[in-house]
Amino acid sequence: MSKRLNGSLWLGGVIVALFVLMAAVGHKLAPRDPMTENYVFQIDGKIITPPIRPFAVRDYPLGADVAGRDVLSRLLWAVRPTMMMVIAVAAARLLLGLAIGLLSGWSQSWLGRFLETATSAALAVPVLIIALAGITAVGQSRGLVAFIIGLALTGWAETGRMVHEQTRAIKGQAYVEAARALGASGQMILLRHVLRQIAPMVWMLLAFEVSSTLLVASELGFLGYYIGGGAWIEVSDFAAVNIAGLPELGQMLASSMVSLTAPWVMLVVGTVIFAAILGFNLLGEGLRLELSPEQLHQRTLLSTVTERVGRRVQDTLMSLEDLSPRTRRLVWGIVAGVVVVVVGGVILWRGQGQAQQPPMRQELIIPGGHLWATERRDPFGTLYADVTGPQQPEIAWVWQNSEGLAGGPAVAADGVLYVASSEGVLWSIAPDGQPRWQVALEVEPVGAPALGSQGDIYIADKAGGLSAVSPDGKPMWRFRPSSEREATSGPIVGPDGTIYYTTIDAIQAVTPQGDGLWKVLASDYYVYMPPRLAPNDRLVFLKEGVVDLDDGTLLDFTKALVGEQQQFVDPMYFVGANGELYYLSGNTAIQWRRAGEEIELLGELRWATPSEISWRFPTDVGTTRERFAWMFYASQYYDTTFVWIDQISAQASQVRLPMRRGELIGVDQFPTAYLCNSQSSAGANCLALRPGSDKPVWEIPLDQGHTFAGGALAPGRLYVAIEEGFLYALSDVQ
Question: Model's pTM, two decimal places?
C-alpha cells in the first residue's frame, strides 16, 4: 500500500522555507529604505497623510505606516531579527524541557518529585504573565537576553510534561526491565533506550516551540514589549503613538494600531505573523505524523535521515561509558563551553544590532591627530572621543597651581597636556604630571587652549584677543581685536588652520598668522560654548546661529527646518560624532543637510521625555559614532539628569543624579559618559554612566577643590581641572 501524502509536512515546510528565505535575503529584496519617512502622499491630485492602505499608492503595494515608511520593505527586514529571537528562545525552552522531563520521568527520588511539581506549577501560570514579569525584572533594554529569560521561565513546561510522560511510559517497557536485570546502569538505560525513543520527537517539539514562542512574542509585541521597546511620542494633547526603530515584527505590531478606521498595517503585519505560526504548527504536526513509530518502518528519506542521526548521536553518547569519570567530565565541560560560546556569540551579535544597521558615517578628523584638541574635544564640538576611558579608575596624580585654573586641559597626540592658569600662565605638563615648561600670557585667559595641526597652542583671553604659543613654549603672536569684548569660550581650529572663538554673542575668526578675518554677531544670548564647524560644509554654528565661513555672512535656516512653530524651545545646532548635522528644537533633534541652496530634512530623533524633565530643555546633546544619542540636563537649581537614546530602537535609558551643577566632560566609544559636579562645601566628584544602567559604573571623590573648570578624555585616563588650581589624572589601576 502506498504511503499517504503528508500534506501538513509539505505545506508547513514550504511556509517555513519561505520565512527562512526572507530572513536570509529579505533585506536585499526590500525596494526602499525601511527607515525613510514620508509625511505626505499624492493620490489622484490630492495630498493625504499616512498611514496609507495597501495598493493606494504606486510602488507601495502593502501601504505605508503612520510615519510614511514602506510596509513591504519593513516586513522584508523584520523577519530576520524576529526569527533569530524566536529560535533562540525556542531552543532554550526545548533544552530545558528535555532535561527536566527526562529527569522527572526517570528519577524516583525527591528530585523527580520536585521537578514534577515544578512542571505542574509552571503549567498552572499563563506564560504571558510570567514573560511580562521576567522581561520587566531583567530589563527590556537588555534585549535578547531579557526575552530568553522571560519566555523560558515557564515556557519549557509543556515540552517537559510531554517528555516526562514518554519517559515514564518507556521506563515500564519489558526491554528496559530486561536491561536492568542484565546489570545495565541507569545512565546507560537512559541514554541507550529512553533517549533513543524520544529523539524523533525533538524536531517536532522544536517546531511547536517556535510556533508557541512566536505567538507569545506577538502578544508581548502588541502590549509594547519587544526588543528595543520603542518610544511613546505625543502627537497631540492626550494622544500618543508608539514609534518603532529598525523593523521587527513585534515592534511593527505594537506601532501599527493607530485607529480603528486605519487598521491596514496591523492587518498586514498580523497576517504575516499568523502565516509564520501556521507554518511552524503544520510543520510540527507533519513531523509528528512522519516520525511516529507506526510510520518509521516505511522507508522515507526523512525517516531514514532521522534514524541514522539518532543512531549516531546514541553511539557517541554510549562511547562516553568507556571513558574514565575524569575524562567524561572534561568532555562534557568542552561541550558546555562550546554551547556557551555559540549562544553568547549570537546574543552579542544581536545586541550589537546584528548588521544591517544604517551605515556608519564618516570619521571626524582632528587636525594634528590630537587626543583632546579643544574645549569640546574637536572643532565640531561632539564631546566624543574614539577611545576607551577609565573603567575602574584611581587618582594617578594631582598637579596643583596656586593661581587657579581658567579651564580644562588640551591633550596633544603625544599625551602632553596644556592648561592655562587664571592669572595668565600657560603650562605644559607631561603625561606623568610633571611640568615641562610655562610661559606668561599678556591677558588673563579664558577656557581651555586649542591645538593646531603642527602642535601650536591658541588661548583666548578676557580682552577678546587670541594668543599663539609654539609647542616648545615660545610666544608667537597675539591678535588684538578692535573692540575689547571678552571671550567666553576656548577657541577651535578648523582643518585649514583658521581659529574661531566666541566673544559673548559673536564669532571671531583669525588666520593661523594672527590676522583677523571677520567677526559676526551670531546669537541673541550670552554664549559660553565654543563655535562648532560643519564637517562637510563651509559653515560654523554658535548655538542657534549659522555663519558662512567664506565671508562671515549670517544665514537663517530656521524656517526651512521648523517653519514658524519654534517658540521657547531653546534651539541649538550640533554635530553628531557620525558627522551628521542636527538642529535641536525642544526635545526633538532634526537631522538635516544642505543641498546647494536648499535644506534637505533627513529625519528626526525623538524621545518621550519623562514627566520630571518634560518642562526642561537639554543643556547639551550629542551622538556617538554608531547608534547612541544622549541628552544632558543640568542646573544649579535641579538634580542632574542624563538620558541615553538608542537611535535604532528609540529605547531611552535615564539616570537621575542627586547633584546640582553637573558638568559633562565627554563620551567614549564604549559608550560611557563621564560627568563631574561642583559642590559648595564638599569636594567635587566624578562618575561614569553607561546605557541600560540606572546607576553610575563608578564614582570617585576629588578631595581638593570643589568648582569644576573643565576636563578631557584620553585612552584609559580622565583629566579633571578644578578652578581652585588642581588638575587630576584619573587612571585605571595597572
Answer: 0.59
